[in-house]
TrEMBL record:
It comes from the Bacteria. Belongs to the EcnA/EcnB lipoprotein family. InterPro entries: Entericidin. The keyword Signal applies. GO terms for biological process: response to toxic substance. Keywords: Cell membrane, Lipoprotein, Membrane, Palmitate, Signal. One of its GO terms (cellular component) is membrane. This is Putative small secreted protein.
Length: 38
C-alpha cells in the first residue's frame, strides 16, 4: 500500500514538473515574439 502511494505521488510530481517547464517555455516564446515585433 505504501509503495503504491509513493508511486502515485511520484507520477503527480513529475507531471507537475513538466507542466511548469511547459509554461516557462510558453512565456519565453511569447516574450521573444513581443521583442521581435518591436
Amino acid at each position: 500500500m505504501l509503495i503504491r502511494a509513493l508511486l502515485v505521488l511520484s507520477v503527480f510530481g513529475l507531471s507537475a514538473c513538466e507542466t511548469v517547464k511547459g509554461v516557462g517555455r510558453d512565456i519565453t516564446n511569447a516574450g521573444e515574439a513581443v521583442s521581435d515585433a518591436l
